[in-house]
């Protein structure tokens, strides 16, 4: 296996791309999206409506460039889930090619090969929700570009323009996934500890970082949504912490194999003295970035497996060292075969069967579940006062109150006149045809807005319908 990737032939990367497509094929065939895949598609579909502005007319903590990407995908492909998955494959292919090229041209290893790309691609198969186009995956692309420029700085090959570009890439990474801002701090630390960067270049890096953020801010100022952007994206992401979507045991099963091999690789790498001073500094940078990935994970709102992709380059870096440090190539081959079998095997076992101890996992929470109200909401504008965003699968978002953790600040504080005024204004703009009240708050709010309340019929405890004669 490894001997195939030791040959200096770029076509090996095409074979690796085909291998990824084959490994992911059973998942591509599946027609049921994960809950966050559905969330991204709903946001893209809603923002494609001409009168909807992100944050102002649609409450969500999604980063602005991620929302723009899903809007573009919805415009091109509609609700075709396969488009997101194929885009993810192509992006992963670009990433493992870029990662391998970074390691090759910066002489990070004592052997030049395509093994780094192979390990990187393999780690991208750790869990099946890595297989879709997530904001984290897109953000990681720009983090890799930043990483390349850090290495250039270590070799004193970095000019002012490249420093500016490095900051710009970091700004883009944050605009796709806000917790990536920890890598901004890690980059500054890497420059400070491992290079002799002058103050002017630090300022260039910060200027480059702020440039795309300023451009996005101007856009929202123009559309009178800047304060909403700050509150719904920046402040909310930093201050709000939700429970993990799956249990700690479920996470442990996902990360157990990569974590064990990573720790072995880390020990072997740092206990070996066969590296140049430059290679040692590269290793230190990669360890700092690994810690930054932990920081980003802790900052993320909803702890989901797909957010672990931020660890992939840094885990792949050290595991590649571990492979290349084997004195006997046959042992390295056996290691690679065992590692690949465990990673892919456990992934498919989880996807198809669950867990060795089925009572400890809750992977089912990642799937979109059918609701008892499914038939009542098909093709209608909908407002869900709760967390069941899966109801929007066959309907459209009515009113801005899509993301409940943001919306509940308004709906649960219904004694505040400002909140009632905001809700009333939203209803005057668009009357949702169906309201699902999971938190039993609608009657309290309607008592403050009798003219709006009179236009709805309460069908059941949680189900309200716009009266036909008022539609």
Automatic annotation (TrEMBL):
<feature type="transmembrane region" description="Helical">
    <location>
        <begin position="202"/>
        <end position="222"/>
    </location>
</feature>
<feature type="transmembrane region" description="Helical">
    <location>
        <begin position="332"/>
        <end position="351"/>
    </location>
</feature>
<feature type="transmembrane region" description="Helical">
    <location>
        <begin position="306"/>
        <end position="325"/>
    </location>
</feature>
<feature type="transmembrane region" description="Helical">
    <location>
        <begin position="167"/>
        <end position="195"/>
    </location>
</feature>
<feature type="transmembrane region" description="Helical">
    <location>
        <begin position="282"/>
        <end position="300"/>
    </location>
</feature>
<keyword id="KW-1133">Transmembrane helix</keyword>
<feature type="transmembrane region" description="Helical">
    <location>
        <begin position="82"/>
        <end position="102"/>
    </location>
</feature>
<keyword id="KW-0812">Transmembrane</keyword>
<keyword id="KW-0472">Membrane</keyword>
<feature type="transmembrane region" description="Helical">
    <location>
        <begin position="246"/>
        <end position="270"/>
    </location>
</feature>
<feature type="transmembrane region" description="Helical">
    <location>
        <begin position="114"/>
        <end position="147"/>
    </location>
</feature>
<protein>
    <submittedName>
        <fullName>Uncharacterized protein</fullName>
    </submittedName>
</protein>
């Amino acid at each position: 296996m490894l001997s195939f990737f030791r040959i200096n032939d770029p076509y090996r990367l095409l074979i690796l791309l085909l291998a990824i497509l084959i490994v992911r094929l059973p998942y591509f065939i599946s027609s049921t999206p994960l809950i966050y895949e559905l969330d991204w598609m709903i946001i893209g579909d809603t923002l494609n409506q001409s009168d909807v502005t992100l944050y102002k007319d649609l409450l969500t903590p999604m980063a602005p460039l991620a929302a723009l990407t899903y809007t573009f995908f919805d415009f091109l492909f509609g609700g075709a889930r396969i488009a997101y998955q194929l885009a993810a494959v192509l992006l992963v292919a670009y990433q493992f090619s870029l990662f391998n090229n970074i390691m090759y041209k910066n002489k990070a290893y004592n052997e030049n090969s395509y093994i780094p790309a192979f390990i990187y691609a393999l780690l991208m198969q750790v869990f099946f929700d890595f297989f879709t186009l997530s904001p984290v995956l897109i953000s990681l692309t720009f983090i890799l570009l930043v990483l390349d420029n850090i290495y250039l700085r270590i070799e004193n090959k970095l000019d002012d323009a490249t420093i500016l570009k490095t900051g710009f890439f970091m700004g883009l990474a944050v605009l796709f996934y806000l917790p990536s801002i920890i890598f901004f701090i890690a980059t500054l630390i890497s420059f400070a500890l491992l290079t002799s960067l002058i103050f002017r270049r630090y300022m260039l890096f910060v200027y480059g970082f702020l440039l795309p953020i300023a451009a996005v801010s101007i856009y929202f100022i123009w559309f009178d949504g800047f304060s909403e952007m700050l509150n719904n994206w920046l402040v909310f992401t930093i201050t709000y912490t939700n429970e993990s979507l799956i249990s700690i045991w479920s996470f442990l099963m996902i990360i157990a194999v990569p974590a064990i091999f990573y720790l072995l690789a880390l020990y072997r790498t740092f206990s070996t003295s066969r590296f140049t001073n430059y290679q040692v500094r590269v290793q230190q940078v990669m360890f700092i970035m690994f810690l930054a990935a932990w920081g980003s994970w802790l900052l993320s709102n909803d702890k989901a497996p797909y957010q672990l992709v931020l660890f992939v380059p840094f885990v792949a870096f050290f595991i590649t060292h571990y492979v290349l440090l084997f004195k006997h190539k046959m042992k390295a081959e056996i290691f690679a075969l065992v590692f690949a079998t465990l990673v892919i095997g456990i992934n498919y076992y989880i996807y198809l069967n669950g867990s060795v101890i089925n009572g400890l996992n809750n992977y089912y929470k990642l799937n979109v579940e059918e609701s008892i109200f499914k038939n009542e909401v098909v093709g209608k504008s909908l407002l869900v006062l709760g967390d069941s965003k899966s109801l929007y699968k066959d309907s459209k978002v009515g009113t801005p109150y899509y993301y409940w953790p943001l919306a509940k600040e308004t709906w649960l504080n219904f004694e505040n006149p400002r909140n009632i005024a905001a809700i009333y204004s939203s209803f005057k703009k668009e009357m949702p045809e169906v309201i699902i009240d999971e938190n039993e708050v609608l009657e309290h709010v309607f008592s403050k807005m009798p003219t709006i309340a009179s236009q709805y019929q309460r069908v059941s405890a949680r189900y309200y319908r716009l009266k036909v004669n008022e539609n």
